[in-house]
Amino acid sequence: MDKESNPVIAQLPLSAVRETGVNLNRPECVLGTAAGDLYVSDKAGGIRHIQPGGSARLIGAQAGLIPNGFALLRDGSFAIANLADNGGIWRLRRDGAAAPHIMEIDGVGLPSVNFVWLDDHERLWICVSTVRKGDHQFRRDIADGFIAVHDRNGTRVVAQDVHWTNECRMDPTGTYLYVNETFGRRLLRFRVAPNGDLSERSVITEFGKGTYPDGMAVDETGHIWVISVVSNRVIRVSPKGEQQIVLEDSDAAHIEKLETEYMANRLSRPLLYDNHSKKLQNITSIAFGGPDRKTAFMGCINGSSLAVFDSPVAGLKPVHWNW
Fold it and tell me: pTM score, two decimals?
């Protein structure tokens, strides 16, 4: 791959970041379409639809549903990863009606689900970070997360013992599935069989102090854009594991405090949510949109809007792009 098709990306100043969307409620995850629509998870129990003209409406407000990752399905409905204790994958229709969709695997109930993603074969990939609750889950020595796949044959677990499973995506060829291990501070890669089975697990790269990989997206060159919660870092990772920081908004003293607690297995939710930055509000995800998919939209857990910047590289076209 030549340099023209894969340009070197200089680290962006915070002044390159702008905002879109207003009065959002824990907009952790975001999807974009070719028509210019943005869909954002909303803690009120639904999906916020931001239309190209800027107007927005909330689709659904289901009690007991805390949307995190979500997928836009072919019929216009959404598959939602439910962070609430009742867990599972829920289906949300455009009229706002919501109902349980995938609530168990082989008779075992799904706990709180972090993320769900739809691939080019329209299979749903389900990421459960941990079966633990509360502040006992943010530890270096626990790897009880798993990955499941849902297709026409049902739902089954395809990878276990993942260290706090977060977002996943495939490479441009569909050969590999990338997965973030947030509190393992690693990016994993699996080979994907035609039937969705995973094998050849490997660590593509390990992240250092202050980096907790959360969301991700893949660009057209096959590089993985990883979002670090807490430190507000955007890191572009090559398929060989080389890292480049594209954007950062962190506080050194806060990162030092987090590192001490992380190493001692004492990380707590209040500390993780405590934001110390100039502009970014605890970013958690990234999605490429705009007419050429060179506009990067970032979700977050502390803010009420989306942070946006322009990328010299286009994001990989998602399966829902023209829906």
Answer: 0.96
